[in-house]
Amino acid sequence: MAIAIPPKARLIGRRLLQAAPAIAGIVIITFLLTRALPGDPAVYFAGPAADEASIAEIRKQLGLDRSLPVQFLAYLGDLATGNLGTSISTGQPVLTELITRLPASLELTLIALLLSIAVAVPLGVLAATRPDSWIDHLCRFVVTAGVSLPTFFTGLALVYLFYYLLGWAPPPMGRLDILYLPPDPVTGFYLIDTVIAGDLQATLSALQHLILPAVTLALFTLAPIARMTRAAMLQVLASDFIRTARAAGLSRRKVLFGYAFRNAVLPVITTLGMVFSFALGANVLVEKVFAWPGIGSYAIEALVVSDYAAVQGFVLAMALLFVALNLTIDIIYTLVDPRLRLED
Amino acid sequence: MASIADHPTPASRRNSFWRHFRYVLASNPVTAVAFALFMMFVTAALFGPWLVPYDPLATDGASALQPPSWSHWFGTDHLGRDVFSRVVVATRLDLSISVAAVALSFAAGSALGSLAGYYGGWTDRVVGRCLDTIMAFPLFVLAMGIVAAAGNTIENVIYATALINLPFYARMARAEVNVRRESGFVQAAKLSGNSDLRVLAMHIFPNSLPPMMVQISLNMGWAILNAAGLSFIGLGVRPPTPEWGIMVAEGANFIVSGEWWLALFPGAALMLAVFTFNLLGDGLRDLVDPLRRT
Amino acid sequence: MNAIPLLDVRDLTVEFATRRGTVRAIERVNIAVGKGETVGIVGESGSGKSVTSYAVMRILDRAGRIAEGAITFGGIAIDKAPEKVMTELRGREMSMVFQNPRAALNPIRSIGRQIEDVLIEHALAVRSTAKQAAIESLRAVKIANPEERYHAYPFELSGGMCQRVVIAIALACRPQLLIADEPTTGLDVTTQKTVMDLMVELTQARGMSTILITHDLGLAAAYCDRIVVMEKGKVVEQARAASLFSDPAHAYTKRLLRATPRLDSNVRDLLPEPKPAPPPMPQGAPLLEVRDLVKEFSGRRGAAAFRAVDGISFTVHEGESLGLVGESGCGKSTTSAMVMRLLDPTSGAIRFAGEDIAATPAARFARSPLRGKLQMVFQDPTDSLNPRWSAFDSIADPLFRLGGIRRDAARGRVEELARLVGLPQELLDRFPHQLSGGQKARVGIARAIALDPKLLILDEPTAALDVSVQAVVLNLLADLKVELGMSYLFISHDLNVVRLICDRVIVMRQGRIVEEGQTESVLHDPQHQYTRTLLEAIPHPPAIYQGEGLPA
User: Fold this and answer.
1) Which pTM was predicted?
2) ipTM topping 0.95
3) What superfamily does domain A98-336 belong to in CATH?
4) Which of C160, C385, C445, C496 could link C191 by a cystine bridge, Cβ 3.0 to 4.6 Å?
């Protein structure tokens, strides 16, 4: 019996186990994407200039002449050994490329999410506590306008304004001025690595390059978070237990933050999963606009030349990243909401 | 099967609908604006090619990269094509892609979700597992993967957009059906001799429609964004076909040198279209919510 | 009453801003509550009784405001007091207990912490002493093992327990006034009694004043010194409890008193105008025979299966009304769903008109020829009508599906049914949200009798209705039974109501039948201890015009 394991740890363990079917589903879909859908992968992998013979050769080489289950087992074996194939355009193993480029995408996405949470949550709370005030109208405008903004368009507009017109921002090319050498990779996050390297000038440059893409992405994710926060707060504020708290004479501060906000946070945390999904997708577009050397622009370059192993590796990496983010959300939720402990 | 349409008092019901429609438009000017914009987009989609002053594909090297003027309202692009004509003509393609995708995912999603919500048990588990698998991907990334694998065509963009929208409809339909499954009027319908499928189709589903209509409208916006995003990175639509996403992508190269109009106008059209559908979603909720109809 | 009342409400008018302009929820209400006094505010839904109390606490919704009048509490002008003063008064000097106790507690904060919050807010405890004080508060409301319960969350407690916690929060700071807004609505009668007794015991011991807001005259009679009757936002009458019952002055009060079932009333007594009693119906052969009926629900994740219905047998004869009575969770609704063939039993037989209808799976019973003969009236008239269908559509549905009636012929039959249930013809084209509760109930009944059923199951048909509407609906059901020659199986938690309609009753508890017999004998000479507890827990208004003597 697992008596010694605290219930919270056991719940977290269960959440981890619940991610298993999602990962299995992802592996199956990524496999099917190459093998079972219309179109001949061998043609992709052979490249545009290949003839019949070389396509047949590649088909054999890739094991495409074998039965689907056998191919799937081979695919699983490849995944287990970290073999995602080789990119035909760069000649590098896909895994290596993804690992080198992942930190750039992560740095951008995480900074953008932190930024949008920091703005959206207070905005939503304020809007809900002051219905029909200017901040409520502002919130509603931001919410409706924000979800209508195509990320790539916002990005371009910001570039035009802050780079071309005002000249405040550096050119939308990469993570660092060409004057600076990339720091030694420790975390892969330039903001941190440059500080570790003691090159604060480079830190500043990295920050300048990061701001516009991060703001672009943040503007996109702002709307769903603000909308959910506002809606959740409004719903909680109208609920019976808030009335009880008010009738018991708890101060406005206590009612708003101790009671209402803590309850409203729960649905907001749930929404974050969806927001991550949007953010990771929009990330691809932002990376293209700002020539950001992350896995998104890697995938777009690969798409252009039909470098399928690279695209597939990218899809798999993004999906696994998303599962990891969702898992984090689930675990946070489990820790916050006592009702989930009932399942135990 | 007799439909609800041949109701004994269809006239009075239709009247009350129009009265309510006018009331909603009058009481909420934002919805009225959204509805006007919607009609504008529909007009552009239907009659665009006949309304525009220039052939959207005609190049003219002499007048390349001209800023907006009286002869070219939105300026010209690097090949001298009229940006205004291209933006208007593109409406049809952009709306067709998203309408087709949303229609597909609504039909499939609400059918799957309703069955899962009504029957529960293993139907629910199987459907739920499939939806979870789709949702385990960042959706735009999944759409990229599908179009890349299935082939770079407009049809595949539609299928991919439909697939990534499907879980929203399915989950919503499931939840809406589920809350009504045990309600009194559903039990009463069974006692009146309605079969399970009939109960689902005639009693539960129509009551689940209002929230789903809102979802459709919001999703239209999202579907347009997705399709445009895919063409922005070179999937689906190919040049020289006029399409908003690809026009923004082409215009992007000229932003750093100051030719803003190439990207701005198609981008603004895209934004306005999405904005319209989002506003319309809120208006629709007022329109179809029977509890607020008086 | 003392010379200076603790709470004095003068000419209070409250307005709400709505989509259709300003609406007056209450108008020129005058209520005074003396020290140590218990005042009941009684009225049906929409009478403004809750709004009055929210105004006193100054916790009206954002849309509501005090338009006119004055509220004085302990010398403080509540209507003009700044919010800061109100925060100090609420919980400290005046506090409130609400309906639906589970929702009234913060779902993600332990109950101990919620009590502590109030104590600390009003400076009656500091962090280090708060826990002990909170445990004492829990002990005061008689919660066993308060040290352990301190850590419990609302979802881990029963409804009655949650209400005790809400009371503990309300009384933690020993306020002078407690406002209880429908504190026991939704709780079982036995729980209702313990909660009410507890509240009275605590408030009396502390010399507090209490306002009890309720729709239940019986409850008000049992616990209040003085009763205020409200109708449509106005006070129509207020009097000492005893004299209100012996000598009601206002017509509305009289109507309300009549409509409330008492120990000795029959179904006709509830109506405002006298009407001859329905003729007794001769009882015939057995119509419904239930034998050893069992329903098990499999437990989650290997937990033991739960027997909702545990081997019950009973018979309903032709022309008979059988009552099935019990508290929530006793298995009565599961039983009715099985008899109605909406749910398949685990084992046992259900014979209806000589056929074993349990042999046909519930999913296929919709096509059985017996379907039309076995119908049901549902608990919540709103929930039981399709919101997108007009009254006509709802009533006609069974005619089209089972009655083989064509569309053009249906109008006449539906109009006839509407006449039978007393639904005006012009309402047939309305949608449920355009009908009142009583009208919706009539639509539900018309639909149930559309196919001339032999057996009608009435599943708490009046539980969601106001008493005056309940009186009319009960009488309608009594008349229809004779007129159409039906038998009834009446499911209810309320022995008082069952008594008015039923010849025999069955008392259920935990899936089993504990007592069965003729209605009068079960009511007056209950054999089982549980039946006695149930009967004692029901508060009765005293018989009209018989002077003093309040039953406890």
Assistant:
1) 0.83
2) no
3) MetI-like (1.10.3720.10)
4) C160
